[in-house]
Write a structure and sequence with these properties.
heterodimer; A: 231 residues; mainly alpha; 7 helices; globular; B: 488 residues; 3 domains; two-stranded antiparallel ribbon
């Protein structure tokens, strides 16, 4: 068996950042304090922007600098700001006995959820490796990690029973997909990337509006009561 | 003309943001009818060659079919809304009602705009963006009634559809990867380029992109097992919005699936994409047919009927024979008209009775026009001749039999028959059984003529589609079917 060449500094650095993104996703999965969950989301977005800058510098794709700036301003600053304002708004007005800043229980206990997420992430990681998709700009591991991130985000959306965590699950799912896009589609025309980001902003605003509506009606962020419509 | 089609609804939306309710009604109705006229004018041209404009707008025969469906429903719903927001709500003149009207018309026009825009995009990324825009706007429209049920339905819809569309975004990215492998780094995700590259595309990424696209756009199309948002959203939205969701939004998502189907067929050969669609289609059809039998809510009944028809579309596409493909495209049109009609007729019943429950109500007696029209719409939905769905399902089944899909065709016929039982039992209770309970006190009469006219127009359209479709439409459908089977 041929000796495995040690990865270059670039590949190693990129993989470390990608693993950081996955760890942030797991952090969101087990974090019960909503405010800290939003912080983790911002950190995850910052990591992805950093990776975009690394790719731009190492592979000479100047558009990615612009993209990194835009996505950082949107996902590290704007969206978390909106979410935090939303949390503060619902917290201050309704500081009554029912309100806490802590998410309700999930469908499973935290430990089982994390175990499930590890299994799902491993599945994503190894199944992508079987697809033989090779990235022109980043090590192949990064793609496998990005798919694992997306799958864990889906677990987060399914298992959590409050509207804020579910929205964060969606937003971090989008982060995982941005990571995939960075790996296999770094050359995607900038105008399309910008359109995607704008679309994300619109979706975040609508999520915020509906969180408001839901909170106004149910006086909580829990989705445990959303069982009226069935059959 | 394409640009005009994209600006008229936006202009109507802007007007309805500022103008009083009466002006918004008139402008929206005018915009709906204008857009339908524009689409009709597009049909002959699009049947001959793809129209391209500004490098990203592209209307070929397939897109034109979906534009027709949306254009027709936009016009019908815009007229229907005049009556829906006019009489019997007992809240005219309130400041709250004016605000409701403003939001409603703003949302309605933007929603139709986004659904008209989606089939005109010649680029898979822009197509995804347009579909995502339809989601966020329609989620707000579902929430507009401001009840507990509406808030719940809107949240489920937004969350499930957004998660599904995230998978579709992943599909878009893998499609780009496949395209850039075959066409070089500067590939811009244009659909024609991807189709042109055909078998030069790498296989695994295309396969992955296709499955993700079916699952992702299939979420919005209401395919089993990702249909769960659909009955909630359809039953809690205002009736005109339900009609648009069912007849047009699902079709637009189906359009996205069709585009990926074309690419996958060109790259992988027809076997794999057909098998995937067949599995999803049969599962949706069976589930929906069973849910139709024991349904107690009128609007949920119609929602499950949409799942059923989307299953039929997926099965028809999986047959792949040109006759079946022409049937699929005709089915898109006929389903839009029939489901729009059924929802609008149901809306009148619900308005009259004040309840969505399926209960003996003597509707034929109570509503001299809407009752019979609703009955005809149910007949049309159950594929009775002489309506359009009969012709389209006949073509799908005949095409399926000729293409060797006899088991799937048999399943289709059985499930459609089961669905017919469910639908006609419900219609029988609502329309023919003598009135019971509080309904007995209601006087005979229609809430509004505006709510009858579009339904009557829909019945005429269905009969035309079923008995003798115009030559230009037949040509368009033939052209589109040829494109889908890869011959043109």
């Amino acid at each position: 068996m041929a000796a495995v060449a040690p990865p270059s500094v670039f590949a190693g650095g990129a993989n470390v950042i990608a693993v950081g993104v996955l760890l942030a996703e797991f952090g969101m999965l087990r974090q019960a304090v909503l405010r800290d969950q939003v912080r983790l989301y911002a950190a995850q977005s910052a990591l992805i922007s950093a990776l975009a800058i690394v790719v731009a510098a190492a592979r000479h794709v100047p558009e990615l600098y612009l993209l990194a700036g835009l996505s950082a301003s949107l996902k590290v600053v704007a969206v978390p700001l909106v979410l935090r304002r939303l949390l503060r708004g619902v917290g201050a007005e309704r500081a009554g006995p029912g309100w806490t800043d802590i998410a309700g229980t999930g469908a499973l206990s935290v430990a089982s959820t994390v175990l499930l997420a590890i299994a799902v992430a491993a599945f994503g990681f190894f199944s992508v490796a079987a697809l033989r998709i090779h990235s022109p700009v980043l090590p192949d591991t990064a793609l496998a990690i990005s798919v694992a991130v997306s799958l864990v985000a889906l677990v987060l959306m399914i298992m959590r029973r409050d509207v804020v965590s579910q929205a964060i699950g969606f937003l971090s799912l989008e982060n995982g997909i941005s990571l995939s896009a960075l790996v296999v589609a770094a050359g995607l025309p900038l105008i399309l990337e910008v359109a995607f980001l704008f679309d994300l902003l619109v979706a975040a605003v609508v999520f915020g509006l509906l969180i408001r509506v839901h909170h106004g009606r149910a006086e909580s962020v829990s989705t445990a009561e959303l069982t009226r419509l069935r059959g | 003309m394409l640009v005009l089609l994209l600006t008229v609804p936006v202009a109507a939306a802007l007007v309805s943001l500022r103008a009083p309710a009466a002006a918004a009604k008139a402008v929206t109705a005018a915009s709906g009818v204008t857009c339908f006229g524009l689409v009709l004018a597009l049909v002959p041209e699009a049947g001959h060659r793809p129209l391209e404009y500004l490098s990203f707008l592209r209307v070929d025969a397939v897109s034109a079919v979906f534009l027709l469906a949306t254009g027709f429903l936009y016009a019908a719903v815009a007229v229907y809304s005049v009556g829906y927001l006019g009489h019997g709500r007992g809240e005219e003149g309130h400041a709250g009602f004016a605000r409701y009207c403003r939001r409603y018309y703003l949302g309605l026009n933007l929603f139709c705009w986004s659904m008209l825009a989606a089939p005109m995009m010649g680029n898979l990324a822009l197509l995804w963006i347009a579909v995502e825009v339809t989601t966020v706007i329609s989620a707000l429209l579902v929430a507009i009634e401001d009840t507990d049920g509406a808030a719940e339905a809107a949240w489920k819809y937004l969350l499930i559809a957004s998660a599904g569309l995230s998978l579709a975004l992943l599909a878009t990215i893998f499609a780009y990867y496949a395209g850039s492998q075959a066409l070089g780094e500067h590939y811009d995700l244009s659909f024609a380029g991807l189709l042109h590259a055909g078998s030069r595309l790498p296989q695994d990424p295309v396969r992955l992109a296709f499955v993700l696209a079916v699952l992702g756009f299939g979420t919005k199309m209401g395919l089993f097992p990702v249909h769960t948002w659909l009955p909630d959203a359809h039953s809690e939205a205002p009736t005109p919005v339900s009609a648009l969701l069912s007849g047009s939004l699902l079709a637009v998502s189906f359009y996205a699936v069709i585009r990926y189907f074309q690419v996958a067929s060109a790259a992988l050969g027809p076997r794999f994409p057909r098998d995937v669609l067949l599995a999803f289609g049969v599962a949706s059809l069976l589930l929906a047919a069973l849910y139709l039998i024991e349904q107690r809510d009128l609007k949920r009944l119609l929602a499950y009927s949409s799942v059923e028809h989307m299953g039929i579309l997926a099965i028809g596409l999986s047959f792949g024979a040109p006759l079946a493909l022409a049937g699929v495209l005709l089915h898109v049109l006929a389903h839009a008209a029939a489901k729009g009609n059924a929802f609008m007729g149901a809306g009148v019943l619900v308005r009259k009775l004040g309840s969505k429950r399926i209960a003996p109500a003597g509707g034929l007696d109570l509503l001299p026009w809407s009752g019979p029209l609703f009955l005809l719409a149910i007949f049309a939905l159950s594929a009775l001749p002489p309506f359009g769905i009969f012709r389209s399902e006949f073509e799908i089944v005949a095409g399926g039999l000729s293409a060797g899909g006899s088991v799937a065709a048999a399943v289709l016929i059985v499930a459609v028959t089961v669905a017919f039982f469910g639908l006609s039992a419900a219609a029988n209770r609502m329309l023919l059984a003598p009135r019971e309970g509080p309904a007995r006190a209601l006087a005979r009469g229609e809430p509004s003529a505006w709510m009858v006219a579009p339904v009557a127009a829909g019945v005429i359209a269905l009969a035309v589609l079923g008995v003798h479709p115009p030559a230009e439409l037949t040509h368009l459908l033939g052209q589109a079917a040829a494109q889908l089977s890869g011959a043109a």
